[in-house]
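Consider this pair:
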Amino acid sequence: DETISEHEGKSVVIPCPVNKAKCGDLHSINWFKGDDRIAAMLLGDSNVTSVSDEFANRVTVDQNPFRLIIKDLKISDEDIYLCDTTFLIPIETCDNFNGYRVELNVLVPPTEVVILDEKGDRIENGSIIGPMQERQTLKATCVVRDTRPQPQVGWWRGNKRLMTHSASYVETDGLFTATLELTQELSRDDLARDIECRVESAALPNKLINKFRVDLQVRPTSISINGVEHHTVQGSKVVLTCDVHGARPAVNLTWYNSSAVISPEENELTEIRTKAFEKDDGTYHTQSELIFNATRFENDMIFRCDADNVVLQLNRRNHYIIADTGSFISTSG
């Protein structure tokens, strides 16, 4: 006994193994689809073959070897087929008294695999949606339409399968439509990563993958100020560097002297240089340099660098204070 799978519209050969050496001469063969006889072959001098009217245009029976051939395969052809053999004088060594069974599966690849957003609008394969922010909930639905057998459907990010409920299936005229919903709280793990709906089925030579990517906005992960570590002398050039990592989009940086915003337009002796570098994960390293000449007016002043982007205003600061001696003393607060 065996299982045979073939695509709808193709031809399939269903074998009927006969061992005359073990069983003797063959008298007749009856072919059954489920409980219904669909073909018969009477051997010997008469050598008559008949096929039921329902299958007359699509089914033929061959000898040498014995086999049933179904053309233009239909979904309704899926069933258990029995080749029932009768021998003139069965030999004791014959082990074919129960016939030979073949389970025939009819395959139909999906007409389409589509991803829908929470509004039911299509997300095109390979597209980027958003922007969305970390901790926001992403909702999407993968729909696999009109296929047989039931496909296996899963949501993936890289080599990690995402947690979901089981897929739901609706059968219409022998074809299945599978639906699998995804509800995912977005995190930094989703940066620059494809979210994939993967479909596997006996009807497909390879797995089908539809995917999209989220334009994800995230908070900075760190902010720091570097510059004078020990002291400097009044009148010397001071360079303070503010570094912000892990934000998307790039942050806006603002320098403060105590509570006053530092603006180079208002002081030609002060310069601010800011640049941003995009990293492999799509986040940015933003770096800003505050350059000025130390004077008595900066004495006891607190300098800070504030960073913000659309996700979160970050107000973490490191301070540099000009002491009475004219030297910088590094503190934090």
About this structure: The chain has one helix and 29 strands. The longest helix spans residues 20-23. The radius of gyration is 38 Å. Residues 313-333 have pLDDT under 50 and may be disordered.
